[in-house]
């Protein structure tokens, strides 16, 4: 459960860092209209209008063009640092969809071991017409999930069947891979 909590906490931070980096990069680009190099009319216009209104501020101690230039540079620097922090965060896989329920693989492996010791075929079926799940593995999972913490239980019989199917596939794939040489 702590692994799932860490992933869910890291995801909003990663999203916020990425968003901040993008937004500050855009601010830096738009306020660099008076810098040398190729600039669009929008960049030049935004910079010109911002300087025009900034010059009306009596509390400004530096000339408006210098202030905007320094601000644009600082925004670019902070955008870059936010991107570095985003890249350095561990495990951003939660952004690409829901996290895999890897812990369910252990639960499935336990059910498969029980079936083997009992001499029962661990079947998992889904009726093509009605969509109803059945089989020994499915029924055993449904019965034993009641002993799991409520947040870990499958929300529906269909979800339980999908979890079992995916876990079984991951377990088969892990058996096919060659063990690492040490």
Report on this model:
- By secondary structure, the protein is mostly helical.
- The protein folds into two domains: 2-96; 103-176, no CATH class.
- The chain is 62% helix and 2% strand.
- It has helices at residues 2-30, 41-54, 64-88, 103-118, 136-144, 157-176; strands at residues 125-126, 133-134.
- The chain has a two-stranded antiparallel sheet.
- β1 (125-126) and β2 form a beta hairpin.
- α1 (2-30) runs antiparallel to α3 (64-88), α4 crosses α5 and α5 crosses α6 (157-176).
Task: Give a quick summary of the entry.
The chain contains six helices and two strands. With 182 residues, the protein is mostly helical.
Topology, pairings included?
Layout: H1 2-30, H2 41-54, H3 64-88, H4 103-118, E1 125-126, E2 133-134, H5 136-144, H6 157-176
Antiparallel strand pairs: 1-2
Task: Tag the structure with descriptive keywords.
mainly alpha, disordered N terminus, single chain, 2 domains, 182 residues, 2% strand, two-stranded antiparallel ribbon, rod-shaped, 6 helices
């Amino acid at each position: 459960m702590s692994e799932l909590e860490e992933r869910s906490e890291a995801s909003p931070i990663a999203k916020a860092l990425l968003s901040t980096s993008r937004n500050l990069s855009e601010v830096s680009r738009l306020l660099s209209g008076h810098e040398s190099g190729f600039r669009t009319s929008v960049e030049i216009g935004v910079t010109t209008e911002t300087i025009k209104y900034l010059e009306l501020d009596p509390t400004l101690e530096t000339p408006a063009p210098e202030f905007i230039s320094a601000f644009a540079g600082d925004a670019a620097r902070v955008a870059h640092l936010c991107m570095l922090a985003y890249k350095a965060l561990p495990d951003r896989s939660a952004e690409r969809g829901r996290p895999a329920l890897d812990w369910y693989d252990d639960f499935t492996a336990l059910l498969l071991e029980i079936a083997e010791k009992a001499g029962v075929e661990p079947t998992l079926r889904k009726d093509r017409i009605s969509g109803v799940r059945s089989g020994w593995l499915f029924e055993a999972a449904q019965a034993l999930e009641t002993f799991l913490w409520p947040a870990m239980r499958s929300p529906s019989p269909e979800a339980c069947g999908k979890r079992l199917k995916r876990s079984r596939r991951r377990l088969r794939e892990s058996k096919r891979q060659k063990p690492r040489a040490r």
